[in-house]
Amino acid sequence: MTKFDEATQAIRVDETTYDVCLDPGYAIGGPLNGGYLMAVVLRAVVDASPFEHPVSTTAQFLRVPVAGPARVEVEQVKVGRTVAFLRARLVQNGGTQMECLVTTATLTDGPPAYTDQQSAVLPPPERCVKLPDPRPESGMTLNAQMELLFDPPTIGWLTGEPTGRPESRAYFRMTEPQDPDPYVLALAVDALPPVVFSAGARGWAPTVDLTWHLRALPAPGLLTLIGSGRLVHDGWFDEEVEVRDSRGRLVAQSRQLARVGRG
């Protein structure tokens, strides 16, 4: 079991309830990363489902959970022969922190009947760059759990030179050696800095709603994350992320609605 597996494990209490312990190592200046929270909930959902993989997840982030004990409550909405629909709540201190609707199925690793081309081409990893290590007092503990190698233009905001377009692109892998799986993908779809940074905004940009799809089981190796946005308006922005595995296959895609950062 890797550190990530341990940080996302869900312990079954009964048919509908799971105990979890939210790990402070996945924080972004205080709040826990949304992808990490989804991975925790999905551990419980998949255990409660007759199928192996979370092929579609919609999460609404109602509050900001804190590190420590919590529970996941799972309800089977409908179970068919090849697909199951489940509802899950992350509950902490008596309040619902996050609600999810999850569709599960069992994917196979056969060749695709059709796959499109990657929407953007990144330089090779050796020509990409890391963000500077955050100061210990920043509370950015998430950075230590994963390695991101960025396409240089998409982090120009660090030096006051944003591209003016909502975009972010990077290679991704866990710091501790681990082959990507659906739970790692749940983290990966929310691992990039908000694409609105490249459009000139700064500050914490809380996600309100995020939907992602598991499209295929990823091959071992680096993941490629390509993030973009279509509209920044009235304090809101959207963010789309496609995730490609080391073979170039599309393995996950997401869309989220978030608030433009303040401060």
UniProtKB/TrEMBL annotation:
It holds the Pfam family 4HBT_3. Residues 25-107 form the Acyl-CoA thioesterase-like N-terminal HotDog domain. InterPro entries: ACOT8-like_C, Acyl-CoA_hotdog, HotDog_dom_sf, Sec_Metab_Biosynth-Assoc, TesB_ACOT8-like_N. Residues 125-260 form the Acyl-CoA thioesterase-like C-terminal domain. It comes from the Bacteria. This is Acyl-coenzyme A thioesterase PaaI-like protein.
